[in-house]
Amino acid sequence: MSTASAWKANCVPDLRRERQNCSFDTEELTHIVDGGKEQTALRRKFRQLLASDPEFRDEIPPEYLSHEDRYLNEMRKTCHLDSKIAELELDRKALLLSKASMGILRDGDPLWIHHNVFLPAVSGQGDEEQCKEWVGRIKRGEVFGTYAQTELGHGTFLRGLETTATYDPATREFVIHSPTVTAAKWWPGGLATSSTHAAVMALLFTKGQCHGPHLFMVPLRNSNTYKSLPGITLGEIGPRMGLQSNDNGFVRFDNFRIPRRNMLMKYSQVREDGTYIKPVHSKLSYGAMVRVRVGIARDVCVQLQQAVTIAARYSAVRRQSELVPGEPEPQILDYQTQQYKVLPQVASVFALLFSSRRVVDFFYSVSAQMDGGDLSLLPELHALSSGIKALAASDASSGIEICRLACGGHGYLASSNLPRLYTGTTCAITYEGENTVLWLQVARYLVKSCRAARKSNTLGLTVGYLAGQPTSRNGDLSSKGLVEAYKVAASSLVASAERRLQSLCDSGMAYHHAWNNCAVMLVKCAEAHMRYYVCEKYFDSVETVAMKPELREIMRNLSRLYLIYHITLQPGAFLKSSALTAEEISHLEEEMCSLLASLRPQAVSIVDSFDFDDDQLKSTLGAWDGNVYQRIYDEAMKSPLNKKDVPDAFHKYLRPLMKSTLRSSL
Most buried residue, 140, 497, 549, 650, by most Cβ within 10 Å? Predict the structure, then answer.
């Protein structure tokens, strides 16, 4: 039996029965999740190469290691992964996109920013000569880098950054400086100890003028000795809620000098005499950030896939209480409340999967147009990437937490892997653009589009619906009709927010104050817009992607569950816009219960289609065989506190206290 299939050999009776009830081809769904049969084969090929390598094993669970040893352990594995990719001449991008390497690095990847942000930033914003100088060295591992934008005092607000890059024409150098403690670059992964260089976002000053934030290639360490360079102060920021091995760090610059050509100059330049050449479009430098945001949406979807796999399998194994007095304890998945926790999150996986793929397609389409000089779709891409990142990060984080709660006390155990999935996902709400700020950026685009529609101007593809006036839907409760209800609700919210904003301005309030006074409404309209986008792409994908009738029935039920679930979570928007009546929402609530019951027998088979092996899930609750309790017990026995019958604490502290006079006086 091969290594890849050995972990599927046996399972407990409850899970065996669940799988026997499957009404569709799980392999077909796996191909859809992967993006095609060829992608599934490629992922499994990659996975076979990695799963058989003993170097990726953890001799000691990371939770029991010191802070430094956790970092060293993950660095060992990520460097071995890079070496193996080079040795076998694997396609790194294809391997990472395939999720085959998922599970190897459990506590964060010290080189994640190097590969996924630093390299794209340099290749995307460096001119031809700079790319020739740097990109090859980065790919060969001669240079390791990070992306240093966020500061201790400022994050998403780029114009508020304090780090300066002042051009000195006498020496043809930029002077990088941190004038205050709040100007320290703070948070970049890999910055503390893993990077030799950083792509640093700093305010550009030349000829006495500030030209806003620009990106600079800044060396941090001597490549031979690895010592930090004079004028550079580096450090780690300390333990975080999660991703302990990312060595998130800080750096302060003390009038540190770099050559003029270390400013990345694809879009804007500083000539030798200090003359500044501005870019054709102010948002062109956002390319790397847009790419990362789209990637985040895809990555958190994979995290949610793992969580629902764990929760669904556990829910089929765990038996508790009495559903019918006097009868055996039922599987907790038979309880409607448990179905309500788990199944909408399963549906959410496909919503994020299909919609994020559409955003990726749009990204590549716009990128191709931009390469040809057409920048017309850049604002829409920026809004769409901001929105999908914010919605995916929020939905995945809340979904994983619901899955953790669905597993009761066992979900609180580190060995369930649910705490790690949650802490490794919820941080996405903040990094690469804090969600509230991103929602307001989406809202800004919606307001502009709403006003453009009023003037009969052409609108972007994703906001074309704003040209029509919100109308009622005449009682159509089909899935297509519900998507229309989302459109009506979103359109109404956008129009209401824009009217409120204009009313405040007409009353004499300054625009920026009016904007702040409408901020809650603006966030809500942005969320409604993106929810409509996701629902539309979900519904369309289920209807257009090739699949057998048995699977399409399952997928239609999942998409309908998603549509109804989010209507019942936010009924007010649908009632206020007359998109739905109270009676219709009550009817949908009743239907949701029927959907939960019909999907319940397929739950385990659906998550099986995500095709994670046990080494990837790293969960005592979610293993293929369902042997939950023995796995929990075996994992508990790995605790260092179980190595001695009499703990050191007894000799050092407890016995002295027991023999002290204090005890007799209490």
Answer: 497
Which parts of 237-367 are beta strand (E)? 249-253, 256-259, 269-270, 276-277
Which residues of the chain does CATH 2.40.110.10 include? 114-279
126 neighbors 134 (Cβ within 8 angstroms) = yes
Instruction: Answer whether 285's CB lies under 8 Å from 376's CB.
Output: no
List the one residue out of 191, 140, 560, 57 whose CA is nearest residue 350.
560
Q: Which residues contact 2 (CB under 8 A, 6 or more apart)?
A: 48
φ and ψ at 73, to 5 degrees? -65, -45
Q: Where in the chain is the domain with CATH 1.20.140.10?
A: 284-458+476-637
> Which CATH code fits 114-279?
2.40.110.10
Fold classification of 284-458+476-637 (topology level): Butyryl-CoA Dehydrogenase, subunit A; domain 3 (1.20.140)
Cβ neighbors of 269 (< 8 A, separation 6 or more) are 263, 276, 277
Of 329, 308, 289, whose CA–CA distance to 437 is shortest? 289
**Segment 298-314 mean pLDDT:** 97
Q: Which residues are catalytic?
A: 432
Based on its alpha-carbon atoms, the radius of gyration of the chain, rounded to whole angstroms, reads: 27
pLDDT grade for 503, boundaries at 50, 70 and 90: very high
Is pLDDT of 208 > 70?
yes
| Surface-to-core class of residue 489, CB atoms within 10 Å of its CB (0-12 exposed, 13-18 middle, 19+ buried) | buried
Distance of CA 648 to the CA centre of its chain: 42
Strand partners, 168: 173
Return the closest-CA partner of residue 605 out of 203, 15, 41.
15
Interatomic CA distance for residues 469 and 8, integer angstroms: 54
Count each helix (H run) and each strand (E run) in the chain, helices first: 26, 11
